[in-house]
Amino acid sequence: MTRLIALMTSVVLCSFGPLVAQSRPSGPAPGRLVDVGGYRLHLLCSGPVSRSAPTVVLEAGAGGISTAWSVVQQALPGMRSCAYDRAGWGWSDSGPGPRTITQEVFELHSLLEAAHVSGPYVLVGHSYGALLVRRYAALHGEEVVGMVLVDPTHGDSRLFHVSQHAWLRVREQSEGRVVPRPRTLAPGDSTMSFYDPARDYWPEEFQAFHDARAADPRTLRDRPLIVLAAGKEAPPPGVPAETWADLRRERRALLSDLTTLSSDARLIWDPTSGHDIPKDDPQLIAACIAAVVRAASGASLSESVGGCVGPVRGH
Hints:
- It is built from 8 helices and 11 strands.
- By secondary structure, it is of the alpha/beta class.
- The chain has one domain (5-308): Alpha/Beta hydrolase fold, catalytic domain (Rossmann fold, 3-Layer(aba) Sandwich), CATH 3.40.50.1820.
- β2 (32-35) and β3 (40-46) form a beta hairpin.
- α2 (101-114) crosses α3.
- The radius of gyration is 19 Å and the shape is globular.
């Protein structure tokens, strides 16, 4: 079956950005390039190293690069935070294909090890990046003490399927194929920078998220979790009002569902921001990260969360 799932550029509902080729950023890399097995990933860390506090690891949305977190990092004084560019994006080299969630989580783990960025970690994922940090926690849970999901993609998300002219769940397009094992580059290996529909394993990986939730709904146990949701939801072009209302209801239910990943979780709505909260309200994200860091260090989330809930930002 042809896998032509349209990745809408208006992504408030689906939480994906357009996966299209980008020009390399101009100028030298602001961070350092770290070899992860035959290719290099760009890593940009700021703040003091602390043995008593977790390191914040920032995962951008689809099509985003490390600089998407610049203002957030500036707003985290006294905290160690690290953003990076996935293979083929920003200042990072292209990596081996196919570009699966499995491969990208493998590369993040390899990067943190190679760069000697030690845990524990508070993971922060925006949009598609939320799937990556959730997968990271599933594989390396002993390293993760808290999480912030910023207008996240859900494993049951629907995208617009061009050939069928319908909104369909990504996982329902699964053909049960085995997702290739992650790998480094050997001499002569080919690389792959961007999404290729012919090598698309997202339906299988989304189905795996769904199955994992069914088997173990509370994967984060009692680790502090904040789900930060965009309140400005503009309809994609051409979507009928009735369809949009239905999609919005479903989207809100999915966001609420993500709070069941942990017994210590909060859903916070930001009515002033669209899907790109790192751009629209980076200070709010920083406040929510600080709340999770405090909670991971021993305070209760209910006591810590006040900084990212207020009369203007609350829902």
